[in-house]
Amino acid sequence: MKIDFSTIAARYEAHSLVQMPAADLLLDLLEIGSADDVLDLGCGSGKPTRKIREITRGKVVGIDPSEGMIKEAVEKSRGMGISYEVGSAEELDCEACFDVIFCNSAFQWFSDPERALDNCSRALRKGGKLGVQAPAKKVYSPNFVEAVQKVAEDPRTGEVFSHFKAPWFFLETEAAYRELFEKHGFRVLLAKIESVKTAHTPEEVFDIFSGAAVAGYLNRDCYDSEIDAGYVETFREIVKEAFVRQAGGQGEVNLVFNRLFLVAFKE
Ligand SMILES: C[S@@+](CC[C@H](N)C(=O)[O-])C[C@H]1O[C@@H](n2cnc3c(N)ncnc32)[C@H](O)[C@@H]1O
Known about the structure:
This protein is α/β, with parallel strands linked by helices. Helices cover about 40% and strands about 25% of the residues. The chain has a seven-stranded mixed β-sheet, sandwiched between helices.
């Protein structure tokens, strides 16, 4: 299954209304030192990477498998002394290169999280820190899940949607995440799933949905049958209508995301 954010790369930062506050929280939790060498894994267009650059005078590297995202990241941080590479967490191959690995809103997309964690463990120096923020639980956002359920139930889209295979990796409990990271050589300091609530107009919620979730829901590689332009358009229409309904009379959607915040040390 190929996940590619390139088609949404140019709009990603404008639509990343829920990822950026979460990135700021993760940055606070990680307490990056002023000389730390830091890897931003799944860096996207590099907004958090640019913040990391302001914290440390050490080496700052961003890695992402999407060529479009890396192109955006390079353009947005010219002259800042950040290195970017196209690559996935599963391909990360370096030994004791970093003091900190920061990973915001990307872990759920990893096709092989266990391999990725082994690679992170190898890439960190002894005592180095890994910080992960990612949507968690199968119902990672009740609003998105409800909207997509309408697609599943609609006679225009239901049959094709039954061929959709979700690409995301989610665990249901803090203990399950803790166990996974510990299995790969980490000592977990904090593993917390928070229900993060924010209020947005239905249009903003649709932009948030379009800024990341569609890289799965409308990804041809996530279906074992063809999807055509008509399906894509009707899918978007149904989801948009669902967000308008969720806003009800008050005009704003109470958007909920279950988010994992995890900080671990390499033993
Ligand atoms: C929602 S964006 C988050 C980008 C950035 N970390 C941020 O907070 O703005 C998710 C990113 O994960 C990347 N990604 C997907 N699969 C990945 C993998 N296997 N390894 C590393 N990054 C991956 C995507 O290309 C995308 O840029």
